[in-house]
């Protein structure tokens, strides 16, 4: 962009300079001719025709041309040794009379003019090129900002906007406004859908509560067990839907406390209802939200139980918690794009409504943890939760083993 | 036999939960709305009040407040919307804890028992408590043996939960107790359960009774009792 501006300015100032040069020169030549003819007429009118320039100095071309006519002829001789000269000549009574008008000062004027034009052009380029570069950079930056914002919206940051910048009516401003209003419309639609999901789940809760309570009254038996199992599934689906819509609404905040991981995970594993091999290195205490970490681990373990094969392992090493099964591994689309709701991947992954991993991911975001999905080299799915590090100096343990902040 | 008063407007839940709790050995009386619930309560106070938050007429929060004017009976709220403000309203009005509907009977029974346990703190369970001297925090005096609390010489009426909370804080004077630790010790929750708002609002109620300056909040951590 800046190079283009430099070329444009150079071409423009060059052609303007050339035009001025040409018109000035032709004016000088015209003036030189008139003056030379005037001098010639004066010489012819006087009796000084004898005081002539030596014939050897007269340009042959001038002499030849003068022969063809009886009127005065002129010749501009720029090859003359010291300075350019305008010649005028006429045959009077068979004798060539010449007059010469030196044009050195005109030549100098023209050179000066050319010099000034060059300076002016160079000055213009020097001023305009940085300006053009800046202008191009400014517009480019605004466009890049618009592109970045669009990417952020696509990545899920629905509050991202480009914002009103620059002059109303310029192209970048227009495209920014168009992107922003599109984002507004999308956000409204999405919020409405989220509200609807949350409302539906809420409305389902009351009849479901009656159903859950009523199934407790049924006499034990095979039929009752079938009904209770389906009620459990219906209930967990409703609860998960509510949880997903709360996470989507991004109103969730973490409640951080110091959690001794070994004690915490053994409680989670005890309540899960199937065998989990637990291995803990050391005695790490982390600062996190235990309810949310429990939701993450429970959902990862349930997913491993549903879609993987035993043994299911939960390993803790420092701030990293790893859930691993020995089944077929995660389907490629989960590995590539991460989990998405109501998709369990390949049909052979079995039953499940696919909200578990979405919840785990959403809760991990709330507590600032990373959650990665991968496959083990020797088979099986691996989900890894990386808790954010906490500064050791923020916590101190008193004699009784209670965690207390240092600043109290 | 422990007597419960269940106030719930949804007929299916009222009947089913009532019957199930009877199977667990509770005596259950029921009411379908807030005013009827208040009448039943006045006819004969139960050992525990189980309240739905959303009730026709006098709602659960209003009923809770009316009951608390005269009684320190344990109150457990049931809410269909655990994430909304009605929970906070119920806790502010004096409820001890809440459960979210639909609730498994085993969870509900565990909650009822936890609240009931708080109602029957047995001093003999802790031999040291008998001999323990009176605990003094400013103008607040706690008799750990007789479980009596006075402020400037006048008795303070505390609910069992509030008393357990005060005793837990008094057992560690000057130490900041994290909210989750209090949920475990006072409310019998494990790491996976319990809402820290329950602690915050119980602390708020306790402050109005023993003086706000007694309990210091350490933001982001928890609470400590000041001498």
Walkthrough of the structure:
The complex is a heterodimer of chains A (408) and B (227). In chain A, 54% of the residues lie in helices and 15% in strands. Chain A is of the alpha+beta class and 408 residues long. In chain A, helix 7 packs antiparallel against helix 9 (356-366). Chain A is rod-shaped, with a radius of gyration of 46 Å. Chain B folds into 2 domains: 3-119, Response regulator (Rossmann fold, 3-Layer(aba) Sandwich); 123-225, Arc Repressor Mutant, subunit A, CATH 1.10.10.10. In chain B, helix 2 runs parallel beside helix 3. The longest helix of chain B is centred in the middle third of the chain and has 15 residues, at 105-119. Classes of the chains: A alpha+beta (408), B alpha/beta (227).
Fold blueprint:
The complex is a heterodimer of chains A (408) and B (227).
Chain A: H1 2-45, H2 60-67, E1 73-77, E2 85-92, E3 95-102, H3 104-154, H4 171-217, H5 222-248, E4 257-260, H6 261-270, E5 277-281, E6 285-288, H7 290-307, E7 313-317, E8 320-324, H8 332-337, H9 356-366, E9 370-375, E10 381-386, E11 395-397, E12 403-405
Parallel strand pairs in A: 5-7
Antiparallel strand pairs in A: 1-2, 2-3, 4-6, 7-8, 8-10, 9-10, 11-12
Chain B: E1 3-7, H1 11-23, E2 27-31, H2 34-43, E3 48-52, H3 60-68, E4 75-79, H4 85-92, E5 97-100, H5 105-119, H6 127-131, E6 135-137, E7 140-143, E8 148-151, E9 154-155, H7 160-171, E10 177-178, H8 179-187, H9 196-210, E11 215-218, E12 222-225
Parallel strand pairs in B: 1-2, 1-3, 3-4, 4-5
Antiparallel strand pairs in B: 6-7, 7-8, 8-9, 10-12, 11-12
Modified residues (4-aspartylphosphate) (chain B): 52
Keywords (chain B): DNA-binding, Phosphoprotein, Transcription, Transcription regulation, Two-component regulatory system
DNA-binding region (chain B): 132-227
């Amino acid at each position: 962009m800046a190079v283009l501006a430099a070329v444009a300015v150079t071409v423009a100032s060059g052609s303007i300079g050339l035009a001025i040069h040409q018109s000035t020169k032709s004016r000088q030549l015209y003036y030189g001719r008139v003056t030379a003819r005037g001098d010639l007429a004066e010489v012819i009118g006087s009796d000084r025709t004898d005081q002539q320039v030596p014939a050897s100095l007269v340009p042959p071309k001038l002499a030849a041309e003068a022969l063809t006519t009886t009127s005065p002829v002129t010749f501009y001789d720029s090859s003359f040794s010291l300075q350019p000269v305008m010649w005028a000549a006429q045959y009077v009574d068979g004798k060539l009379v010449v007059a010469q008008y030196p044009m050195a000062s005109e030549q100098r004027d023209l050179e000066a003019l050319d010099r000034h034009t060059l300076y002016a052009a160079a000055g213009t380029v020097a001023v305009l090129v940085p300006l053009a570069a800046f202008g191009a950079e400014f517009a480019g930056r605004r466009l890049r900002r618009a592109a970045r914002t669009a990417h952020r919206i696509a990545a899920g940051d629905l509050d991202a906007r480009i914002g009103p910048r620059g002059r109303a009516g310029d192209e970048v401003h227009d495209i920014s406004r168009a992107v922003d209003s599109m984002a507004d419309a999308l956000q409204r639609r999405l919020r409405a859908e989220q509200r609807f999901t949350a409302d539906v789940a809420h409305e389902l809760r009351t009849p479901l509560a009656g159903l859950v309570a009523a199934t407790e009254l049924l006499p034990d038996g095979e039929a009752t067990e079938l009904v209770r199992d389906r009620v459990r599934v219906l209930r967990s689906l409703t609860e998960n839907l509510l949880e997903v819509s709360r996470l989507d609404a991004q109103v969730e905040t973490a409640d951080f406390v110091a959690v001794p991981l070994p004690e915490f995970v053994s409680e989670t594993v005890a309540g899960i209802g199937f065998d989990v091999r637990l291995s803990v290195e050391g005695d790490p205490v982390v600062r996190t939200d235990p309810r949310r970490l429990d939701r993450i681990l429970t959902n990862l373990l349930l997913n491993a139980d549903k879609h993987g094969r035993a043994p299911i392992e939960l390993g803790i090493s420092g701030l990293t918690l790893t859930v691993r099964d020995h089944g077929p591994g995660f389907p490629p689309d989960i590995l590539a794009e991460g989990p998405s709701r109501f998709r369990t991947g390949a049909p052979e992954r079995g039953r499940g409504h696919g909200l578990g991993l979405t919840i785990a991911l959403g809760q991990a975001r709330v507590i600032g943890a990373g959650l990665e999905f991968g496959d083990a080299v020797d088979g099986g799915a691996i989900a890894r939760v990386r808790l954010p590090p906490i500064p050791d100096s923020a916590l101190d343990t008193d004699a009784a083993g209670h965690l207390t902040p240092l600043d109290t | 036999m422990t007597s419960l008063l269940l106030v719930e407007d949804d007929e299916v839940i009222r009947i089913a939960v009532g019957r199930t709790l009877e199977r667990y050995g509770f005596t259950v009386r029921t009411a379908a709305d807030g005013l009827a619930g208040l009448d039943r309560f006045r006819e004969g106070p139960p050992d525990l009040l189980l309240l739905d938050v959303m009730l026709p007429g006098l709602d659960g929060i209003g009923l809770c407040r009316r009951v608390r004017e005269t009684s320190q009976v344990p109150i457990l709220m049931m809410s269909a919307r655990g994430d909304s403000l009605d929970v906070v309203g119920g806790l502010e009005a004096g409820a001890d804890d809440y459960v979210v509907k639909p609730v498994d009977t085993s969870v509900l029974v565990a909650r009822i028992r936890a609240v009931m346990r708080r109602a029957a703190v047995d001093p003999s369970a802790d031999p040291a408590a008998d001999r323990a001297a009176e605990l003094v925090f400013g103008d607040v005096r706690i008799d750990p043996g007789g479980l009596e609390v006075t402020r400037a010489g006048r008795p303070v009426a505390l609910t069992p939960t509030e008393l357990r909370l005060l005793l837990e804080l008094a057992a560690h004077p000057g130490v900041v107790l994290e909210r989750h630790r209090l949920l475990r010790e006072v409310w019998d929750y494990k790491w996976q359960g319990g809402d820290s708002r329950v602690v915050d609002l119980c602390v708020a109620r306790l402050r109005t009774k023993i003086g706000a300056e007694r309990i210091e909040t350490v933001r982001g951590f928890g609470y400590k009792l000041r001498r």
